[in-house]
Design brief:
58% of the residues lie in helices and 9% in strands. It is mainly α. It has one domain: Orthogonal Bundle (Recoverin, domain 1). The longest helix is centred in the first third of the chain and has 19 residues. The protein is globular, with a radius of gyration of 14 Å. The protein starts with a helix and ends with a strand.
Length: 115
């Protein structure tokens, strides 16, 4: 499980950063996200991956991320940007809103897919 969490964490951070910067994804990232291997990452695939990533990152399984749980993969600034209500933790809805907004920003064609 620890290895799976580390892999998910690595790809989560790389993917979030790539999407946030609207940079193209690396093939390895795309392969991990493209669960049906059709060459595109659909919104539903991205959402499913990020839901799993959140679960992997939530070490104490309390439904939120504390900075100590993600300090090796997110900077203080990235954590603060994800903490929409500024309560010091990132709940699953805050996390998902953030990453799905990043997906929407990266989906330049508006077709619900990342190439």
């Amino acid at each position: 499980m620890e290895k799976a969490a580390m892999i998910a964490t690595f790809f989560l951070c790389q993917t979030v950063l790539a999407v946030a910067q609207t940079a193209p994804m690396y093939q390895g990232q795309k392969d991990r996200l493209d669960s049906d291997s059709d060459g595109t990452v659909e919104r539903s695939e991205y959402q499913a991956f990020m839901t799993t990533a959140f679960t992997s990152l939530d070490k104490n399984k309390d439904g939120s991320l504390q900075s100590a749980e993600v300090d090796k993969v997110l900077t203080t600034q990235q954590f603060a940007l994800s903490d929409a209500n500024r309560d010091g933790v990132v709940g699953q809805s805050e996390f998902m809103n953030r990453v799905m907004n990043d997906f929407t920003a990266a989906d330049r064609s508006g077709d619900g897919n990342l190439q």
